[in-house]
Write a structure and sequence with these properties.
The complex is a heterodimer of chains A (433) and B (387). Chain A is an alpha/beta fold. Chain A is built from 18 helices and ten strands. Chain B is 48% helix and 11% strand. A four-stranded parallel sheet of chain B has the order 2-1-3-4, sandwiched between helices. Chain B starts with a helix and ends with a helix. The chains are: A alpha/beta (433), B alpha/beta (387).
Chain lengths: 433, 387
């Protein structure tokens, strides 16, 4: 395999890089800046509330995926396994624990500060609960604020569920924030941040929906994981976040006008041969190679479910500054992995139809039962409902032992051949009609 | 009174009747009876009983059914339990069941509820969300609402509105059930040779497939038998087994541990039947409030239950000491995130308390036990020789 070339970056990517650099710089100086640090998760994150208390968030999942991309996760995972964590369990957890055992060095090479608060926003993933129970023991004395997000069992968010979450926010989460920071909860400040969230969300949805164009100006999965960064993590609610999405929107809009194809690390794609909807997180240890298989084949991901784990906005939800806590509750419950299976099927079906996809592909992740359990049934349902060819590959988030390049490439090539054949047949059928 | 052997034979047959013949026969006896299947671990069975229903524990296909279709629905890295259950659902095993409940224990069971919804098995399919907040006014309220949803589901099937008196009566019957089970465990603590762990397992597992009234009679008779001397005391060590609360170990595994020289004096095999510790109040403000109060304040520890403030490791150590156990065996199903993610911290608690421990993993259909037997045998010998 050839060495990957220096990645070509869009302007918005450079902006994001600067935002992240500042974030990690602030984290490395948290004590000097007098900022308290909260560890929390991406799905159901309470970024605006965290920012309303002037705290700095750290996302162990993001640390793990960064470790995966920097080829450090393999050793971290093995270190966690040495102290008793089974080979069978979530590799994000093991990578995070391994990173901690190795000095908690963040992606910029600086040590991440220890948490002042563990905010367990338990949304859409049971393993989160186990993860923070472990962290609570590894960071003795650090308070844990638990926010239990009810599952969308009935395919809708009920008033009872919202009330349950708001009560937890008022009586469990906010008091812990106040205790740790010594600051009082300021609902006006939270609402102000939420106003910015809404603006960013509006841009984000417009950007995602531009992939309905033919050709699509963006790759909504491989590039999508970069695009989703600010809104799904530490920046939602900030002015910078709004500016980032405004810039990204302008950039993508320009691409649409010029009928330009998505940018990948080797430049702009020349041809859109296949439009795909993808379900499941990507592999991070071999992210570039994985992506390359797709763009080399002219495959563009026009919609993905993974970019909705930190918030599902393209079905209409927006944060509501007028009802800040209720709105946070609804946001948490609306995250993709908190949807029940029939809702997930309906969403994917909608994507396949509205984005005029040629196929539906699942990247099934060993570590992530929240995504993976039931995916084979989802696949059959989508095949039955839409008639598009479906594909299935397997890898892992950050365990390099579970990424088999040859195997995945082989499967994808067969899948693309199938898509090609179908296109020919459809064309012939249309000619007859 | 039946002989113990006859009871044990009957229980073994009931425990592994994957067609749930007795339960279906019970349903057929009256027109508005319903069968509600539930997965591990815990469901407040009292509400089903009070709705003229029979709660039936579906603990998986174990090593008693060949899995063909189930494997086509699950990747290799997902535990065995759901593939066995979907196989049973796609075959005729679960026909005549009116509804299914999927307690919140992990993402696999959660998503299995969606698979049942998509394949329209039963008249209702419900993921039963346990609150992970234990404030009676927050988590307690949520828990009560979860029970009410199940009550509404059942009402839509048989039009039985649950009266407070009926639910208190059910609570009384299940209190008796839990009390009898604990009596058996307490007798076994003193005299573990009188009833083997396998026999105990059969008796408990049979209980989740038949009416509680019948199970109580069985338990009473078993106690009558084992308060008298039976069997022969062996030079075995005493162990507690932890981590087998969902996907059940094959009987061969339990037998292998016993044959390797270990008396299993406590375990979490059929944890749902023992989830509530002590009695649920029979004269509380309301029957639903009594069930809620018990869930919030009397639940045992489990990997499905958020434990900050009351760590499972400490509770396991306490249990081991109370049961005078010599060691702990961590025995978890492969790919069981909850059990396996808890294990390192629980092992640390054992280390801190000086309690020896070993661990291994299994599938419900594991067929080879030689290594497990050797491991348990070595564990037993090492404790006997060096502890």
């Amino acid at each position: 395999m050839a060495d990957p070339k220096e990645a070509i970056k869009e302007k918005s990517m450079v902006i994001q890089k600067d935002m992240l650099a500042k974030q990690f710089n602030d984290l490395s100086k948290a004590k000097e800046l007098g900022k308290k640090v909260v560890y929390t998760f991406v799905p159901g994150n309470l970024t605006e509330l965290i920012l309303a208390f002037d705290m700095l968030p750290v996302y162990p999942e993001i640390n793990a995926l960064q470790s995966g991309m920097r080829k450090k996760s393999g050793d971290y995972i093995k270190d966690a396994e040495k102290i008793g964590y089974s080979e069978d369990v979530c590799t994000y957890v093991k990578c995070d624990i391994g990173m901690m055992l190795n000095g908690n060095i963040g992606p910029t090479g600086e040590k991440l500060p220890s948490p002042d608060l563990l905010l367990l926003s338990y949304t859409g993933c049971f393993t989160f609960l186990k993860w923070f129970e472990n962290l609570e023991r590894l960071y003795p004395g650090v308070p844990v604020a638990m926010l239990h997000t009810p599952y969308q069992e009935d395919g809708k968010i009920t008033k009872d569920q919202v009330d349950y979450m708001v009560k937890q926010l008022k009586e469990e989460v906010i008091p812990k924030f106040e205790q740790v920071t010594g600051k009082k909860y300021d609902p006006a400040r939270l609402s102000k941040l939420l106003e910015n969230s809404v603006k960013a969300e509006e841009y984000w949805v417009k950007i995602l929906e531009m992939a309905k164009n033919k050709p699509s100006p963006i790759d909504a999965y491989f590039a999508g994981v970069y695009y989703m960064g600010p809104i799904n993590t530490a920046f939602r609610g900030t002015d910078e976040c709004v500016e980032y999405y405004q810039e990204l929107y302008n950039e993508v809009n320009e691409r649409v006008k010029n009928k330009q194809l998505p940018v990948n690390p080797e430049g702009e794609m020349k041809e859109e041969r296949f439009r795909l909807v993808v379900e499941g997180p990507p592999n991070w240890t071999n992210f570039r190679e994985f992506w390359k298989i797709f763009y080399d084949m002219g495959a563009v991901i026009v919609a993905s479910t993974y970019t909705k784990v930190g918030g599902l906005y393209d079905t209409g939800f927006r944060h509501n500054p007028a009802e800040p806590l209720e709105s946070l509750a609804k946001y948490c419950m609306g995250c993709y992995t908190n949807l029940n299976l029939p809702q997930r099927v309906e969403l994917i079906e909608k994507y396949v139809k509205e984005y005029k996809a040629d196929g539906f592909l699942i990247n099934s992740i060993k570590s992530c039962n929240s995504f993976s359990a039931g995916q084979l049934m989802i696949m059959r349902q989508i095949e039955q409902r839409t008639g598009v060819p479906v594909g299935f590959i397997e890898s892992d988030l950050v365990d390099p032992r579970y990424f088999s390049y040859a195997n995945i490439k082989n499967r994808l090539e067969s899948y693309f051949q199938m898509l090609e054949q179908r296109k020919i047949i459809l064309k012939q059928e249309q000619a007859i009609v | 009174m039946k002989s113990l052997e006859a009871i044990l034979n009957e229980c073994e047959a009931l425990a592994f009747d994957l067609n749930f013949t007795r339960a279906k026969k019970w349903k057929a006896e009256q027109s508005n009876r319903i069968l509600v299947g539930y997965l591990p671990i815990y469901i407040p069975r009292e509400i089903i009983h009070a709705a003229n229903g029979l709660p039936v524990g579906i603990m998986g296909a174990g090593d008693r059914k060949q899995i063909i279709k189930g494997d086509a629905y699950y990747q290799s890295y997902i535990c065995h339990l759901p593939r066995g259950i979907i196989e049973m659902a796609l075959d005729t095993n679960l026909q005549e069941f009116d509804g299914f409940l999927f307690p919140a224990i992990c993402d696999c069971v959660r998503n299995l509820s969606g698979m049942f919804k998509l394949s329209q098995k039963g008249k209702f399919q419900r993921y039963f969300d346990y609150p992970q907040n234990f404030d009676p006014f927050i988590g307690g309220t949520f828990y009560m609402q979860e029970m009410e949803k199940v009550m509404d589901d059942m009402y839509r099937v048989n039009k039985v509105r649950i009266e407070d008196a009926a639910l208190f009566n059910s609570i009384k019957l299940y209190n008796r059930n839990r009390q009898l089970i604990e009596t058996i465990y307490n007798i076994r603590q003193e005299f573990p040779w009188r009833l083997s762990a396998v026999e105990t397992y059969h008796i408990l597992r049979a209980g989740i497939t038949i009416p509680v009234e019948e199970h109580n009679q069985i338990l009473e008779q078993v106690i009558e038998h084992i308060i008298k001397e039976r069997g022969e005391q062996m030079d075995n060590i005493r162990v507690v087994i932890s981590g087998s609360f969902c996907e059940q170990p094959p009987i061969g595994l339990i037998k292998s541990i016993e044959m390797a020289g270990c008396y299993i004096v406590d375990d979490d095999f059929m944890l749902g039947s023992r989830w509530i510790r002590g009695e649920i109040k029979e004269n509380f403000e309301s029957s639903l409030a009594a069930l809620t109060n018990a869930y919030i304040n009397q639940s045992t520890f489990s990997s499905a239950y958020y434990d900050v403030g009351n760590p499972k490791g400490d509770r396991l150590v306490k249990m081991a000491k109370e049961r005078k156990a010599d060691g702990i065996i961590f025995s978890a199903a492969s790919f069981c995130d909850p059990a396996l993610l808890d294990r390192p911290q629980m092992q640390k608690a054992c280390d801190d308390a000086g309690i020896p421990h070993i661990n291994f993993q299994y599938h419900e259909n594991t067929g080879q036990f030689k290594i497990i037997k050797e491991q348990a045998g070595t564990f037993s010998d090492s404790i006997k020789l060096w502890a």
